[in-house]
Amino acid sequence: MVGIRKEHSARKSAAAKAPANASRNVAVARCMCGAVRLEIDYPAFWAWHDHSEASRRAQGCAYATYVGSWKSRFRVVKGAKSIRRFDDKGAGSTRSFCGRCGTPLTYERARSPKWVNIPCAIFETRTGREPRYHLHIGEAPEWAYRGEPLAPLKGYPGVMWERPGRKKRAPAALFEAGMA
Ligand SMILES: [Zn+2]
């Protein structure tokens, strides 16, 4: 209840034209079901795309985009009891997620104890950082979308597809095609 009241008064005090987080200088994130709310002081330290196999599996997506913050600038605003943790001892990392809806929440590494990484996708306000860096790009899967040209799929509004015959070719195959 306290959290709800706090949120309400913060919303009331925000100027009408200002973004939701402007008055408190924080970036707010939440899980899909809303049980967990997180915030970091604005702006985040940096943001990047993580193409590693570990993050791909943990988040169930082609690559994960993270926002990094000092732990001292990070807070669980609501739902601490709903947070579940998984320690990956081999990798020396801990990942947390909402125990109710499964949304990934944080990613911490033992060798960087003062840092916490949060999926950019769960923020509902601006984080103050653009993801301009690509980590572990060598681990990206061959099926990941890399900006190949797309065309509308006839009869399916809103669906785009990659036309066949435009697959990326290995340099050797290109060379052979050129020689033929
Ligand atoms: Zn949830």
Description:
The protein is of the alpha+beta class and 180 residues long. 16% of the residues lie in helices and 32% in strands. The N and C termini lie far apart (73 Å). The model is unreliable at 1-16 and 171-180 (pLDDT under 50). Zinc ion is lined by residues 31-33, 35-36, 98, 100-101, 103.
Question: Strands, helices and their partners?
Answer:
Blueprint: H1 2-13, E1 26-30, E2 37-41, E3 46-50, H2 53-59, E4 64-70, E5 74-78, E6 83-88, E7 93-98, E8 104-109, E9 115-119, E10 133-135, E11 151-152, E12 160-161, H3 171-179
Bound molecules: zinc ion (ZN).
Zinc ion (ZN) binds at residues 31-33, 35-36, 98, 100-101, 103.
Summarize the structure.
With 180 residues, this protein is of the alpha+beta class.
Q: Report strand %.
A: 25-35%
Question: Which percent range fits the helix content?
Answer: 10-25%
Count of separate structural domains: 1
Helical/strand content category: alpha+beta
Radius of gyration: 20 Å
As for the CATH topology, it is Metal Binding Protein, Guanine Nucleotide Exchange Factor, Chain A
CATH architecture label name: Beta Complex
Largest sheet: 4 strands, mixed
Strand order of the largest sheet: 9-4-3-10
Helices, by number, come to: 3
Query: What would CATH call the class?
Result: Mainly Beta
Shape: globular
The end-to-end span amounts to 73 Å
Total number of β-strand segments?
12
The H/E string reads HEEEHEEEEEEEEEH
Main attributes?
binds zinc ion; disordered N terminus; 180 residues; 4-stranded mixed β-sheet; 12 strands; Metal Binding Protein, Guanine Nucleotide Exchange Factor, Chain A; 16% helix
